[in-house]
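Reagents: none. Just compute today. MYND-type domain-containing protein.
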Amino acid sequence: MTIGGDEDVKQHGCVRCKENVEAARRQATEEQQRHLAELEARLSAEHAAALSAVVERERQAAREQLEAAEARFNDTLVQTKRRQWCRNCLKEAIYHCCWNTSYCSINCQQTHWHKEHKRQCRRKR
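Predicted 3D structure written out:
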């Protein structure tokens, strides 16, 4: 009877061993899945933070470029407004006729004078 009893213990013990092994596998699998989920969440958060930082750096760089471009534009505009332009051909003027009319050359002045300016000129002659 001990032989049969030993077999019964062996079979019963093997079933328990299998159950314990399966339970340990399930537990290990669940722990791995939890750990993987934590790693994915951490990676996602780090990725979002890195992406946010890159976007903010790019926005700052764009703001700085825009400010520099606006400053250059304003400087150019001021310099342009300080100049006077030929009423006939729109080149930079060096000859002045009256308060709002200037010319780049004598030729432009004569052309414009005969075309229309002599009727509008406010300069006393």
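Residues 84-125 form one domain.
Action item: order primers for follow-up constructs.
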